[in-house]
Every structure is written in structure tokens, then in C-alpha cells.
Design goal:
Layout: H1 2-29, H2 37-44, H3 48-54, H4 58-81, H5 88-102, H6 105-117, H7 122-131, H8 133-144, H9 150-173, H10 180-193
Amino acid sequence: MAERIGKRELNKARKRAQIVRLASRMFLDESYATTTMSAIADALGGSKATLWAHFSAKEELFAAVVDLHVETFSSDIDEVLTGQAFSVPALRRACLRFIDCLLRENSVLLYRLVMSEGDRFPEVKETFYTRGPAKLRACITDFFATRFHRTEALRLTQIVVSAVTGYRSDVLLRPSRSTRAQHEAFVDSLLELIAWPCGDDGAKTS
């Protein structure tokens, strides 16, 4: 009996993952507005009841799509931040990884979807922010807080995230593809310009 239940749960998880991958392609290739539950069910094939058994609304399915992309994004960022105490070299590595992740095709497509449809569909913007940028900001703040006071860690997070995401927007507007050397030059300039609250060694004060 336990083996049958285990197989049933495994098949259910696989089907859910298949639905999320399919919906991801449709949301990113088309739009949030035109990607309906009926269209997803038709593309999925089989009974429409299968889709509704896993997701009760388009908003819920979109949240799962965002989670799919954020999970990959976050794992890459966590790799260079989690368990790390603040240092400028560690922050430099994290910023470069952040830029790489932001410029991936799926990240760009998801960003464009949120920017183009977030005003018409506030749930899109809210879902994306709470499940993506908000989690990332918390991770970066925790990294800064290993050396700085929490208030300073929050300020530094705002500066770094705003600068890097702004750089992403600038890069996407350029007619030519950006290079790794350009990314490194930007990050090095950013780190040089930050007025570190306790000096460039980040020593925490009382």
C-alpha cells in the first residue's frame, strides 16, 4: 500500500512539474493575458480536469512558474552568498553572478512580462516581487549583516540591488551584446564608489 501511495505521489509531482514547464513556455512566449487555463489545458492534452486538479486558478499556476525560475536563480546566488561573511571580493563574485542570472533568456523574458503586464494585472507584479526580488534582497541583507549593523545592511542592499538591476536595464537597451569585461568594469566601479559605513574592510562598530 505504501509503495502504491509513493508511486501515486511521484506521478502527481511529475505531472505538476510538466504542467508548470508547459505554462512557463506559454507565459513567456505569449503573455499573461492571452495564456488562459483553457489554452494551457488544450496544450497539455487529455482531460482539463487534470489541470484543475493541480491548480485552481491561473494566478496559482503563474506563482508556480515564478517559483520555478526563482529557484534556479536563487540557487546560483545562494551558492556565492550563503554561509559567506561579508568581504568585498565575495560581494564582487555575487554581483557578477547576479548580473549573469539577470541576463539569462528566461530571466529577461519574465522581467519583460512583469513590466508589460504588471499594471493591468497587479497580481503578476505582486507574485513576482514577493517570490523573487524580495527573497533575494533578504539574502543579500543577511550577507551584509554578517559584518554591518542591520540598518546599514539594508541600505547597502538597496544600493547594490538598484545599481545591478539598473545596469541590467541599461544593457538590455544597448544595440550590441554586453561582454564579461564590461560587467566586471561596472561591478568594480560600483564597489569603489560605495562609501562603506565602516571602511572597506567592513569592520562592525558599536
